[in-house]
Design brief:
The chain has 241 residues and is an alpha/beta fold. The protein has one domain (20-233): Rossmann fold. It is 45% helix and 14% strand. It has 9 helices and 8 strands. α1 (35-46) crosses α9 (226-240) and α2 packs across α4 (111-120). The longest helix has 17 residues, at 188-204. The N and C termini lie far apart (37 Å). The model is unreliable at 1-21 (pLDDT under 50).
Length: 241
């Protein structure tokens, strides 16, 4: 199987202290909870590497669609993995995502790929294929990783675990604004339905379902600003440094 993660940080990227570098911070939660925004800011404040694990599943979903494979055909999707190369290139502004050498950073952020990623991520072979990739990136610590099963399965040994949530209406409004800003306009009602569908798929899948880790700190961001959420997380992390 061909897996590739390129960790290329700019010379201007923040560098964490020796004490900070030992921590693995995980941030799990459903779609629209604000994980990406919070995780990026938190990583910047700590001087840590930011890992968007969802981008890895989206990259596989993009390859599945490009190959014309039915995402419900687990055997066909698994058969695609040996010839797939996924790479992340870290930049100060945002990570770039490549599939087989092609930049798909923007292409994987569409509603269609989001739904496909949820289906693909439920395939055991895909999760097993990406498991060592994620663990290798976080092995040295000094990382803020966001996704859906990080605290429960990928990094169960993480020193700081968080589960970020918000009510459905708030999450739908956030995702609607995000999609509109990226040029993917859609009806708010449709966005909310897509999030409900994604929630159902993520929470009920047999492999690594979306659930808070027993030792995760749960934060409801429904009525909080991004800065308030980040500061709450930093207060918890400060105790562990």
């Amino acid at each position: 199987m061909s897996r590739s993660i390129v960790q290329a940080q700019s010379d201007n990227a923040p560098v964490a202290s020796a004490a900070q570098r030992r921590l693995i911070v995980t941030l799990d939660g459903p779609a629209g909870a604000g994980k990406s925004t919070v995780a990026k800011l938190l990583a910047a404040r700590l001087g840590y590497l930011y890992l968007d694990t969802g981008a890895l599943y989206r990259a596989v979903a993009w390859k599945v669609r490009a190959a014309g494979i039915d995402p419900a055909d687990a055997a066909a999707v698994a058969g695609l993995l040996p010839t797939t190369k996924v790479a992340l290139e870290y930049r100060p502004d945002r990570p770039l995502v490549f599939v087989d050498g092609r930049d798909v950073t923007d292409a994987i952020r569409t509603p269609e790929i989001s739904q496909l990623a949820s289906l693909v991520s439920a395939i055991p072979a895909v999760r097993e294929w990406l498991l060592p990739v994620q663990r290798d990136i976080g092995a040295a610590g000094g990382i803020v990783a966001e996704g859906r099963d990080l605290g429960t399965r990928i990094f169960p040994q993480a020193q700081a675990k968080f589960f970020l949530d918000a009510d459905l209406t708030t999450r739908a409004a956030r995702r609607h604004r995000e999609l509109a800003g990226a040029g993917h306009a859609s009806e708010l009602e449709r966005t909310q339905q897509e999030i409900e569908d994604r929630d159902r798929q993520d929470r009920t899948r047999d492999v690594a379902p979306l659930v808070p880790a027993p030792d995760a700190v749960r934060v409801d961001s429904s009525t909080l600003t991004v800065d308030q959420v980040v500061n709450r997380l930093l207060d918890v992390i400060a105790i562990k440094l």
